[in-house]
C-alpha cells in the first residue's frame, strides 16, 4: 500500500504573526520542491489567518492546534471548525498530549473535538501516546487501545479515511529522547492492526500514521524507512526553517 507521506510541524505556543508567516513561506517552498509528499504546519490561532493568506497558492497545508466540537455557541476561549475552515485551514490536531496532560482533556472530550473537526470539514490529526510510567508498567498497548477506542467512537468508515493518526510517546516529546525506530514501528503496526479490526483492512492500509517525539534531521530518515511510519509530527525542530526543511526532504 502506497501511503503519501506527511511531514507536519506543530509550532505550539511560539512565534509572532510575522515570524510565523516567514517560517510558513520557507516550509511552502520546501513543499513545492517535494511534490511526492504532503507538508503541513500548525501555527498558533493568532497567526492562522495571515499564514493561510501567505501560502494560499502553494501546496503547504495549514492546520489548527485544536478545535471546538460545536459550530458556534457560548464556549469562551474556543474556536470552531467552521471558523477555521473560513480561513483556509484544512486540518486540526486533536488530542495532543499537552492538551491531555496540561489542560485535562480526556478521551471523551477529545472524541467530541474529533467529531467536531470531521463535521466541520477539517481533517483531524488524532494524537495518541503513552507516558513513561505507562510504558514501564507494560501498559503501552492497553493505554493506546483505550485512547483509540474512545477517541474514535462514532467515526464512520468513510470519515476514517480522512483522518490522520499520530503516535507520540509522551516521554519522547520535547525531551530529545526519540523512540527507537523499532519501538515506533512496533506501535505503528499495532495501531494499524487495531484499525483493521475496528474498521477494515483497506482502511487500516490507507490511514497515515505519523510518529512524533523529538523528530530531528538526524533521525527522520531511519524513522521514515519503517514500513508503518508514514510521516512525522515535529515540534521543536519545526521552529527552525533549516531543520524543518531537512526533515521535509527526508530520504
Ligand atoms: P517535539 O514535539 O518534536 O518537540 O518533541 C512533538 C510534538 O509535540 O508534536
Describe the structure.
- This protein has an 8-stranded parallel beta barrel with strand order 1-2-3-4-5-6-7-8, surrounded by 6 helices.
- The protein has one domain: TIM Barrel (Alpha-Beta Barrel).
- By secondary structure, it is of the alpha/beta class.
- The protein is globular and about 45 Å long.
- It contains 12 helices and 8 strands.
- 44% of the residues are buried.
- Helix 1 packs across helix 2, helix 1 (17-33) packs parallel to helix 12 and helix 7 (140-151) packs across helix 9 (181-198).
- Helix content is 44%, strand content 15%.
- The mean pLDDT is 97.
- The structure holds 2-phosphoglycolic acid (PGA).
- 2-phosphoglycolic acid (PGA) is lined by residues 10, 168, 173-174, 212-215, 233-237.
Summarize the structure.
With 251 residues, the protein is of the alpha/beta class. Helix content is 44%, strand content 15%. 2-phosphoglycolic acid binds at residues 10, 168, 173-174, 212-215, 233-237.
Topology:
Layout: E1 6-10, H1 17-33, E2 38-42, H2 45-55, E3 61-64, H3 81-87, E4 91-94, H4 97-101, H5 107-119, E5 123-128, H6 132-136, H7 140-151, H8 157-160, E6 164-167, H9 181-198, H10 201-206, E7 208-212, H11 220-224, E8 231-234, H12 241-248
Parallel strand pairs: 1-2, 1-8, 2-3, 3-4, 4-5, 5-6, 6-7, 7-8
Helix pairs in contact: 1-2, 1-12, 5-7, 7-9
2-phosphoglycolic acid (PGA) binds next to β8.
- What is the beta-strand fraction? 5-15%
Strand arrangement within the widest β-sheet reads: 1-2-3-4-5-6-7-8
**Category from helices, strands and their pairing:** alpha/beta
Instruction: Count up the helices.
Output: 12
| Overall mean pLDDT | 97
End-to-end separation:
18 Å
Uncertain residue segments: none
Classify the helix fraction into a percent range.
Answer: 40-55%
Q: What's the SSE pattern?
A: EHEHEHEHHEHHHEHHEHEH
**Ligands, ions, cofactors:** 2-phosphoglycolic acid
Number of domains: 1
By DSSP, the count of extended strands is: 8
**Named CATH topology:** TIM Barrel
Main sheet record: 8 strands, parallel, barrel
Radius of gyration: 17 Å
Amino acid at each position: 500500500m502506497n501511503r503519501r507521506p506527511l511531514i507536519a510541524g506543530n509550532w505550539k505556543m511560539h512565534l509572532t504573526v510575522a515570524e510565523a508567516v516567514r517560517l510558513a513561506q520557507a516550509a511552502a517552498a520546501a513543499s513545492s520542491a517535494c511534490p511526492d509528499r504532503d507538508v503541513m504546519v500548525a501555527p498558533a490561532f493568532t497567526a492562522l489567518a495571515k499564514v493561510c493568506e501567505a501560502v494560499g497558492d502553494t501546496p503547504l497545508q495549514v492546520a489548527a492546534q485544536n478545535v471546538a466540537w460545536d459550530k458556534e455557541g457560548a464556549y469562551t476561549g474556543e474556536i470552531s471548525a467552521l471558523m477555521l475552515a473560513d480561513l483556509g485551514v484544512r486540518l486540526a490536531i486533536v488530542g495532543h498530549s499537552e492538551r491531555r496532560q496540561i489542560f485535562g482533556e480526556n478521551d471523551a472530550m477529545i472524541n467530541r473535538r474529533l467529531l467536531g473537526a470531521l463535521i466541520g470539514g477539517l481533517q483531524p490529526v488524532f494524537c495518541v501516546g503513552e507516558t513513561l510510567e505507562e510504558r514501564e508498567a507494560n501498559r503501552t498497548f492497553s493505554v493506546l487501545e483505550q485512547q483509540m477506542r474512545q477517541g474514535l467512537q462514532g467515526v464512520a468508515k468513510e470519515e476514517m479515511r480522512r483522518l490522520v493518526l499520530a503516535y507520540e510517546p509522551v516521554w519522547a516529546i520535547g525531551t530529545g529522547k526519540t523512540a527507537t525506530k523499532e519501538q515506533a514501528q512496533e506501535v505503528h503496526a499495532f495501531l494499524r492492526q487495531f484499525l483493521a479490526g475496528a474498521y477494515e483492512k483497506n482502511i487500516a492500509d490507507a490511514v497515515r500514521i505519523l510518529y512524533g517525539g523529538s523528530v530531528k534531521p538526524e533521525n527522520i530518515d531511519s524513522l521514515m524507512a519503517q514500513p508503518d511510519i508514514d510521516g512525522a509530527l515535529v515540534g521543536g525542530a519545526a521552529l527552525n526553517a533549516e531543520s524543518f526543511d531537512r526533515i521535509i526532504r527526508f530520504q
